[in-house]
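Work Package 3 (structural annotation) set out to generate three-dimensional models for the target panel prioritized at the project kickoff. During this period the team completed the workflow that converts sequence records into discrete structure tokens, so that structures can be stored uniformly alongside our sequence database. As a representative example, we reproduce one entry of 787 residues exactly as it appears in the project archive.
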Amino acid sequence: MIKFDEKTKQFHLSGNHFSYIMRVLPTGHFSHVYYGPHINSVEDSSILTSKHNIEVGSQVIYDQNDRTFNLNLAQLELSTYGKGDFRDPMFHFRLPDGSRITDFHYVGHEILNEKPSFEEMPETFGKEDDCQSLMVTLYDEIAKIQIDLYYSVFDKIDILTRRAVITNKNDEKIMIEKALSVQVDFDEHAFDMMTLDGAWIRERHIHHRDLTYGIVKIDSKRGVSSSDHNPFVGLIRKNTNEEQGECYGFSLIYSGNFEASSEVNPHGMLRFMMGINSFDFYWNLGSNQSFVTPEAVLTYSNQGLSKLSQNFHELVNKHIVSPNWQGKERPILINNWEATYFDFNEKKLLKLAKKAKSLGIELFVLDDGWFGKRNNDQSSLGDWFVNTKKLPSGISGLAQKINKIGLDFGIWVEPEMVNPDSELYRLHPEWAITHPLRNASLGRNQLVLDLSREDVRSYLFKVLSDLFENANINYCKWDMNRSFSDIFSQNLSSENQGELSHRYVLGLYQLLSDLTKKFPHILFESCASGGNRFDLGMLYYMPQTWTSDNTDGIERIKIQYGTSMVYPPSTMGAHVSHSPNAQTLRNTPIETRFNTAAFGLLGYELDLTKLSIFELKCIKNQIAYYKEHRQLFQFGTLYRNQNPYESNQCRWMMINDEQNEGLVGIYQFLSEPNGSTEKIKIKGLESQGIYQIKNRSQFMNLKLFGDLIKHALPIKISANSALFNFLSNRYMMPIEVDNLSIPGDVLLANGFIPKQPFIGTGYNAEIRLMGDFGSRIYHIKRKENEQ
């Protein structure tokens, strides 16, 4: 809801659980007043802000008629440089006369019962009953620049979005040197700053840091949003946890270079800002031209971090992901990459597909190596024609054969890249982002194509359209395997080179928009060396993202836990792969690999034709279970119960919309000798009725026991014998069975206690043997007629 009080010049934006209040100051500046728990309208907003009744020392007085007011201690909705605000500004301009001074004042506003759309970039969308919007116009009379600040309130899910549109009203061009999307000035700084940081195969790990005097900043200069720092920041009150406490979340619907900063000034005030990275950025804005910033997302929770994430998740699932894919169950896939790498032919692929079909898999994905002369990563990117030596029937023929087996067909592409050893590069070297006088630096033996160029985008649109039209393709994995260097476009003038990184992102969005509109039936999955571009911008075009190239079932726990701070399980590609794992060399039970991947979009990425009977039976059982509960795994409401960064276990759960069914995942890193009895807390369910709790049927391999197998089997057998190996590859040793009935109010108040864990004194069918890297999934459902 958006209210405006003409008398006090006060705006009150509110959702079910938050209020965001602004007002126009007597000087005409647009002031931030309050962001926090929902409050009723306040006629006199001065009770929410600090007051100065005397001049503050060492400050620049804005207007000699009021010596108590200075911009450096004001809470503002936007800030610029040159009139006494010495904090980092939200906007910075270079004007035709060379000056950088700007000073914006309120001139008007408009309340909109619809969500304004800026089609050149991804954005949230909503109908009249979903959201309401506000446009506030500010103007600098001397600089002749207009800034329209846009606010959209999704009141049911406690989401506020912000962006700005800058319009040059000069007769001459101006230069934008900084244009961020959001600024929030808090009057105090008692927060931790939470960020999601990492690297390749170690993405989005949670980190906290205290905020004290000075600036804390994260950013990306890689050309993509990056795995170094995800475009998300949480401002977290002390002692906040998953269930309780106050927290603010900020994210950006953008896939390129970004920055996010928290600045605490000497008076303890906090300024948070986020938007396009101002490093190596400038934009020439001609007369009467406009520049649109990416949309920023803000949310607030006083019910802990799980609620903060649930707000983000609902926004993604209902107001960012395309309506074509909202709530639509995603297929279980087999990807051939870790099964074959580049070494495959049609016969090998069909053998893998037949085995996948027999296990219940639904989609076959052909990964890298199908085009040009691509037998390694050193050539052929850009040459999107089939390698008929590997695939004599072509992509169309292979797709037909895969379909005949009973599977849908998907394909991998990396359109944004080119190898120097390719027909495309030899024909168009000027299409790559390189400087003609410098030796280009390569990443994964490849260069980045200049998507700011219309001719490059037209070429890619045509070759990809030909690929998608000439074969029955239902899925496309869109990869991007390097960061930017040698930032120079041979298509831009010298004065426009600072625009290249942003123009690239806009070009990418244009290409994705054109392709997804033409091929709405294709399920696109974004990938960038795993999770190097996992952001809200890509999810607008592609409803899911490859979470990480790290498929280790244990490492993925921390990655998926951190990712879930912003992004729902319905967006996380998660695969079961070989053990030992290719990225960590860790041996992990196949049941744990599934139990981690199940709380995402399930796939398999291993050679099914070389697995043991034990592994194949486990996989068939896993797939059947996932299909039975797929809607809940993918689209339930996520609650995080136990933080893997702070303990030896991780616990999370998905609850359905009716709040009468749930799935709980429990993961143990290392076995604890003679450990204590555990109690599993439950959240989100209705308290009425009786709930039945069952653990998923899964199996242990006899190799887990080694020589101790003689205590678990009725016969004596050596762990080094051929008989032992024969049995371990075939015998399905069941885990314990939990089947509990608990009243809902008791379950919510006390949780449930699973079977006794193994404590070293013996083993029987009633003992829960987790071991190192063990896990369980529990299904909870209210019994029928138990309301």
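The chain has three domains: 2-319, 333-632, 661-782.
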